[in-house]
Amino acid sequence: MDIEMIRGIPIEEFLSRLGHEPVRRHGDECWYLSPCREERTPSFHVNTRKGVWHDFGTGHGGDIFTLAGELSGSDGFMAQARFIAGVYGGTIPEYAGQKREKESVRTEKRKEPSRFEEVVCGPLRCNALLGYLKGRGIPEEIARAECEEIRFRLYGKRYFAVGFRNMGGGYELRTRFMKWCLPPKDISLIRNGSLTCNLFEGFIDFLSWKVLGISRGEDYLVLNSVSLLERSFTYLDNYGKIRCYLDNDDAGRRTLAVLRKRYGDRIDDCSDLYAGCKDLNEYLESNFPPEQ
């Protein structure tokens, strides 16, 4: 993958690869919940025709490279390019970007590693991460049982995050300030030998469902992105009942429509439980606020 190939990647495709889908779309305009921070109202705007983005919550914006810099915490052009290539499983040729970076490229290559480095997975113990989940209504015992603590280095900087493992061996990563994925991106399936599967878009909703105590020992499938829906069919085909806890937005409704077309009356839309809320976690936070 070279620089010109990266430059041609649509920002919305790059965001989808990272697990972010637009909350609403109108023509060339897409609005997202910011991939750089936690928010309830979408303030992250992408113009698909111009190939630019703007986060109205921070005032930052630019092209796909500056977005990669925002997500990876790097100001260097080549580091941003490597981050994008890493998301797509590729690498940047040694000669790429020399005209733009000139002599500074060699220095940057020496000091900045590529992609995720020094990844360590372990029990979730960090108080900051447990506090983040508690603020979203997830108590410590459920957080520790279902999640891990992931520590890693990315382009010279150290990070730690709540990790939720997927079937490909990657992790969905969350902190109070960011939403990433440690590749590969994939769905998550938790089997308990049931003929009923509960389907969620993201793992925070799955954790919220566990908190609400409506578990009956069934199976759980977390898409980790609605763009991975087709990947779930291999597993969903085997269930007699699929209970859907999808977001109350356009993406959630489109996903439900696809599922109904494929599975008919095997689909049970459970969104009435959290009617008036965007998702199951918002319902949990609104009706059962965490103790301070």
Automatic annotation (TrEMBL):
Gene3D superfamilies: 3.40.1360.10, Zinc finger, CHC2-type domain (3.90.580.10). Keywords: Metal-binding, Zinc, Zinc-finger. It holds the Pfam family Zn_ribbon_DnaG. Signal peptide: none annotated. The keyword RNA-binding does not apply. InterPro entries: DNA_primase_Znf_CHC2 (IPR036977), DnaG_primase (IPR050219), Znf_CHC2 (IPR002694). The keyword Cytoplasm does not apply. PANTHER family: DNA PRIMASE. This is Toprim domain-containing protein. It comes from Bacteroides gallinaceum.
